[in-house]
């Protein structure tokens, strides 16, 4: 979970300690249930490791794939907490967090619950806007798959750990694989491959990211087929290109372990066109 800085303290007679959230690239703004966070409201999500979230880029108060984000939040809330989550409530909290005149940024919506019978809480974090890097990514494969991989949950220790190892070894990110070498996803992104005809998404357990879902819906419009099937590390040579996609965009992959890919600029352009063909939704 995102941490914050408490720079205002009340006297012992006060019931709550106010946490002032600074809006800067290093200090995002946080609200829980539409209110500025306090120590009392923040301690549980800060220390708990049970919840789920979605991440989106917001521009002019709009985002792409809003209904997909809401579907994700609704389904995970039902699965984790056995209760419903109201779409209008989610949208209202996002709008409120952006209501100080900030209409763009990297927005994270996290759902958690303090107590088995409590209504789920919604934490909205607004950070600086982000764009995908143009620099090709180099991935190092690791034998690790996320538990409950279909949920974008807050338990990210494994991904963080293996990415730190990959970066120590000179790579950019970890590529998660099963014990049989089946590719599932990158540590913080989906991975797609191109075989010269179709975009191939690994069918091993993985999060179906919002950008990935948008691409699956729109690739045909730019003349590309899309399919999901098993992809193994020993099959990498059968693909002509690879890329990663997440909430900040689409980036080419130039290397996985010791296998190098050429950067297919025509493919990356087509992927970007497919993604950008989707209209921005009013939050």
Commentary on this structure:
The chain is built from six helices and 16 strands. It is α+β, with helices and mostly antiparallel strands. The chain has two domains: 29-127, Aminotransferase class 4, branched-chain amino acid transferase, N-terminal domain (D-amino Acid Aminotransferase, Chain A, domain 1, 2-Layer Sandwich); 137-282, Alpha-Beta Barrel (D-amino Acid Aminotransferase, Chain A, domain 2), CATH 3.20.10.10. Strands 7, 8, 9, 10, 11, 12, 13, 14 and 15 form a nine-stranded mixed sheet that branches. The longest helix has 16 residues, at 66-81. The chain is globular, with a radius of gyration of 20 Å.
Structural topology:
Blueprint: E1 29-32, E2 35-36, H1 39-47, E3 52-58, E4 62-64, H2 66-81, H3 87-97, E5 105-112, E6 121-127, E7 137-143, H4 157-168, E8 173-177, E9 183-186, E10 190-194, E11 198-202, H5 210-218, E12 225-229, E13 241-246, E14 249-256, E15 259-260, H6 265-276, E16 280-282
Parallel strand pairs: 7-8, 7-14, 11-12
Antiparallel strand pairs: 1-2, 1-6, 3-5, 4-16, 5-6, 8-9, 10-11, 10-13, 13-14, 14-15
């Amino acid at each position: 979970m995102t941490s914050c800085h408490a720079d205002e303290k009340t006297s012992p007679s006060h019931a709550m300690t106010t946490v002032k959230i600074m809006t800067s690239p290093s200090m995002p703004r946080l609200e829980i249930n539409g209110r500025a966070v306090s120590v009392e409201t923040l301690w549980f999500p800060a220390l708990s490791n049970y919840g789920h979230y979605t991440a989106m880029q917001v521009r002019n108060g709009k985002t792409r794939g809003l209904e997909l984000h809401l579907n994700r939040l609704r389904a995970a809330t039902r699965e984790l907490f056995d209760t419903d989550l109201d779409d209008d409530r989610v949208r209202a909290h996002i709008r409120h967090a952006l209501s100080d005149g900030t209409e763009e940024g990297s927005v994270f919506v996290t759902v958690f619950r303090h107590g088995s019978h409590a209504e789920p809480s919604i934490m909205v974090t607004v950070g600086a806007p982000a764009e995908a890097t143009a620099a090709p990514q180099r991935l190092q494969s690791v034998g690790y798959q996320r538990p409950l991989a279909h949920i974008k949950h807050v338990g990210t220790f494994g991904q963080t750990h293996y990415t730190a190892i990959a970066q120590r070894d000179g790579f950019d990110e970890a590529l998660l694989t099963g014990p049989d070498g089946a590719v599932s996803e990158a540590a913080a992104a989906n991975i797609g491959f191109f075989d010269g005809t179709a975009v191939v998404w690994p069918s091993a357990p993985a999060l179906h990211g919002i950008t990935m879902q948008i691409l699956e819906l729109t690739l045909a419009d730019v003349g590309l087929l899309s399919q999901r099937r098993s992809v193994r590390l020993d099959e990498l040579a059968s693909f002509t290109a690879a890329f990663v996609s997440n909430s900040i965009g689409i980036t080419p992959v130039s290397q996985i372990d010791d296998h190098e890919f050429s950067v297919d600029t025509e493919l990356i352009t087509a992927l970007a066109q497919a993604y950008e063909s989707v209209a921005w939704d009013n939050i």
